[in-house]
């Protein structure tokens, strides 16, 4: 028989005969190789080996510096201080290592209101946060190495030039745009840059910046902006901010580049840097006679209260909410409020925690588009997406919800030539209920709100137009 091997033929051996078993063995080998590749790729996501080990079991009694909070600021400060070998540095973080899911860009909403989020909520107020559970807005703050840079949307958007210049004009010397630009550039590794113009960017720094993939929906947003007379910008972080463009992000090879990965990973083997995880700082201890801070009190994962001294300084970088809270618990803050909660002030009456402002978002503008064959979601859509992501770190999981476009516009309410509104866009394909449920859980939509959105999504693609107030 043509193509067959006669049993006992001296011309062939069992290994050379192309039998079904041989083909099966090759197939099994290829399948095993594929599985191994996928497993190895998955292991690289949220890899604990990227981060410093937990030093909570062998802390010293005293350090030169103690840094509170391993977030967007604390990770940088601890890394920089530990560059001096003679200085012993302790970094205290209330959370632990970032989980696997935090590395996948599209899953950022799934991280909010979880154990790596402090789960802060605004107080209910009539007319505010409607359509959300209990009339409260979620205020995500990261409780994890990297802080909020581990759970946010990864947008790399600097403040506008005049924002910093205003700070300097108000007496904050050294904070003008020209003065701080060098520090932006020092920290940055602009992988997305194709030109040699590095006047606003730099390469080789610890924080990797890439450009999100822009889908066809994102391209259409940019085309629509041009029709309205807005320019499409090459660089959202250059001098001109008025217009629309693709978003830059804190990304590294299609994964999140949080500040712990960027700044603590290179420092993780330094003998003079200790990182104590699951260590919730409760207050700074201050000598009431001299008004000088000398120690930090914190609670461990087991509930034990510990105190560690410092020789030089404590740096409180626990975020916009936790930093003033820690200061007030330490007796530093508004006298009347501290008296009300039974804390004896050790410093003069200070307006700690006042003038807190946020960029209000309004996710209530929804556009629908008749479902097209181009955007149909198949039953295997996410299986295919995960396969593409694990093998190439590309596709829908490596980017945002379908657009990755943003824009800055100037309304008649702007007091100068700076844009005062930023536009965000979230897009969902028809019948992509899974993504809507992740969004609903992350934001905190009521059941009624969620069901109404799902009803739209049965037959139509859907887009949220989300304006953000830049200078409240």
UniProtKB/TrEMBL annotation:
<feature type="binding site">
    <location>
        <position position="148"/>
    </location>
    <ligand>
        <name>FAD</name>
    </ligand>
</feature>
<dbReference type="InterPro" id="IPR036188">
    <property type="entry name" value="FAD/NAD-bd_sf"/>
</dbReference>
<feature type="domain" description="Glucose-methanol-choline oxidoreductase N-terminal">
    <location>
        <begin position="142"/>
        <end position="165"/>
    </location>
</feature>
<feature type="binding site">
    <location>
        <position position="144"/>
    </location>
    <ligand>
        <name>FAD</name>
    </ligand>
</feature>
<protein>
    <recommendedName>
        <fullName>Glucose-methanol-choline oxidoreductase N-terminal domain-containing protein</fullName>
    </recommendedName>
</protein>
<comment type="similarity">
    <text>Belongs to the GMC oxidoreductase family.</text>
</comment>
<dbReference type="InterPro" id="IPR012132">
    <property type="entry name" value="GMC_OxRdtase"/>
</dbReference>
<dbReference type="GO" id="GO:0050660">
    <property type="term" value="F:flavin adenine dinucleotide binding"/>
</dbReference>
<keyword id="KW-0285">Flavoprotein</keyword>
<feature type="binding site">
    <location>
        <position position="281"/>
    </location>
    <ligand>
        <name>FAD</name>
    </ligand>
</feature>
<dbReference type="GO" id="GO:0016614">
    <property type="term" value="F:oxidoreductase activity, acting on CH-OH group of donors"/>
</dbReference>
<dbReference type="InterPro" id="IPR000172">
    <property type="entry name" value="GMC_OxRdtase_N"/>
</dbReference>
<dbReference type="Pfam" id="PF00732">
    <property type="entry name" value="GMC_oxred_N"/>
</dbReference>
<feature type="domain" description="Glucose-methanol-choline oxidoreductase N-terminal">
    <location>
        <begin position="319"/>
        <end position="333"/>
    </location>
</feature>
<keyword id="KW-0274">FAD</keyword>
